[in-house]
Amino acid sequence: MLSFEEIQWQSMTFEEIDSILIERVRIYEDAIAKRGGKRPKREGFIMERIANIDNLRLADRKAQEGKTKRIIIVNGKEVRIPNKYIQKHNENAEKELRDLQKMILTLTFPPPNYRSEFLKTDAGKVRELIKQNYYPWRILQHAIMLVVSPRIFGSLITDTFACVKGKGLHFGVRRIKRTMRRHPELKWFWKTDFKKYYQSLPHELVRSSLKRLFKDKTFIRLIDIVVLAYDSGIEVIKELENEIIRNQRNPYWGRVKPDIRKSRNKPHRPSDETRR
Known about the structure:
Blueprint: H1 14-34, H2 46-50, H3 53-64, E1 69-74, E2 77-82, H4 84-90, H5 93-106, E3 115-120, E4 126-131, H6 134-154, H7 169-182, H8 197-200, H9 203-211, H10 217-226, H11 234-248, H12 253-256, H13 260-263
Antiparallel strand pairs: 1-2, 3-4
């Protein structure tokens, strides 16, 4: 079987592409079935699943959920207006999805168009969102997640909450209560937050984590284009450094977060050699 990169996708018709994608996935699944159904540690044939036209159509529907109208403020009132980008896409959706399919297969995409948008959450926290155009980027993001999310979520520990479906705030509270009932010696739990978490996440860490789950080199290149192409820049580093300086002005900083190196000589502080 030819590798994904060796196939001349650009010169094929859509019918030929569909049949080849389906056949390659079928051969892969048949090989797993012959081994007793046990899936490999690192999944393969990811690009074929992402580029499947049925997956792209489903991703298009998912991307539009709750997004067909935008909310703007007019004279202090919220007004819903149609999303012009989605409207424009829907006028020629099938053709654009086919064009997106070719983009995925050949890894040729238009230049990214990042734009910043600030959103105030229900808790009152202001978050900065980095968005791209609906087509092709947001459809592509949903297409990727539809394929890889079961494998990624399956690799996480049980106590992973928030954005995982069915494991939100209430699930987390139930888990904490159950743990404290089973272990009465536990009296406290620690809740913390990371400032600029997504913006400061090392790209190489994301890349290496995905390589442990998926063996498709072309898929990793796709992630580099779709996800890791954005660079938060030096501004995020400076903001994090300023946050440390602001926290150090707090009179309780030394108590909350002691510096081990400065406290080694204190008699009640064990040194690194005795801390086992």
